[in-house]
Amino acid sequence: EIVLTQSPGTLSLSPGERATLSCRASQTVSSSYVAWYQMKPGRAPRLLIYDASTTATGIPDRFSGSGSGTDFTLTINRLEPGDFAVYYCQQYGSSPLTFGPGTKVDIK
Amino acid sequence: QVQLQESGPGLLRPSETLSLICTVSGYSISSGYYWGWIRQSPGKGLEWIGTIFNNGATYYKPSLNSRVAMSVDTSRNQFSLKLSSLTAADTAIYYCARARGQWLHTFVDYWGHGILVTVSS
């Protein structure tokens, strides 16, 4: 099973700043099959990025993903108030499908 | 707009069987895609439970395989989850989801809001 580690656990930033979130896999994720999700309490989670770098439909271009192998990054430019949430990565390169523990982006 | 809604009991006792239904609107299950169940608990984080295709083909997480069953009802545009022999460790928010990609290599493009299931005597 591929174990995903996300860092930092919490990121405290101000609106307008850039957030850089890391997702590291315990082994190579085949085909860079990594997705990123945004989760907020009481709301359905939202797909942001899939295939490591493809932005999902309707997601602002402030969100971008990169990486390959074992290291993946989600970057959020010019943070807006609605971006403060918890972000999870998921690998779907091998079974069982697994998620990281999440990074909370909160307001500084 | 694709929407998914979980329904089922919120409180169960140990050893009982959980039965959840996901009702899909805005998209016909019989048209394709994969359908899955994911849960989130404080102790284990997010966990992909299993995936089902509209022809009934299933994949279950190996560690849950002996206790899980999923089914699809295309006439009602619903799919369901059964999880047996419940323990407190099964207490979690359960999400249903539409998944994309290839069989066994899927990510979620639409999630339900989730339903809290508590297992307690």
Structure characteristics:
heterodimer, A: 108 residues, mainly beta, B: 121 residues, 7-stranded mixed sheet
Describe what you observe in this structure.
The complex is a heterodimer of chains A (108) and B (121). Chain A has strands at residues 4-7, 10-13, 19-25, 34-39, 46-50, 54-55, 63-68, 71-76, 86-91, 98-99, 103-107. Chain A is mostly beta strands and 108 residues long. Chain B contains no helices and eleven strands. Chain B has strands spanning 3-7, 11-12, 18-25, 34-41, 45-53, 58-60, 68-73, 78-83, 92-102, 105-111, 115-119. Classes of the chains: A mainly beta (108), B mainly beta (121). Chain A binds chain B through residues 31, 33, 35, 37, 42-47, 50, 56, 88, 90, 92-93, 95-102, and chain B through 4, 45-48, 59, 61-63, 95, 100-101, 104-114.
Low-confidence stretches of chain A: none
Give the number of DSSP strands of chain B. Answer: 11
The oligomerization state is: heterodimer
**Helix and strand element order of chain B:** EEEEEEEEEEE
**Helical run tally of chain B:** 0
Strand content of chain A: over 45%
Our Rg estimate of chain A from Cα atoms comes to: 13 Å
SS-based structural class of chain B? mainly beta
Strand content of chain B: over 45%
Residue-averaged pLDDT of chain B: 96
Distance between the termini of chain B: 40 Å
Quote the average pLDDT of chain A: 97
Biggest β-sheet description of chain B: 7 strands, mixed
Q: What is the N-to-C succession of helices and strands of chain A?
A: EEEEEEEEEEE
Terminal CA distance of chain A: 35 Å
Shape summary of chain A: globular
What would you call the structural class of chain A? mainly beta
Shape of chain B: globular
Largest interface: A-B, 24 and 23 residues
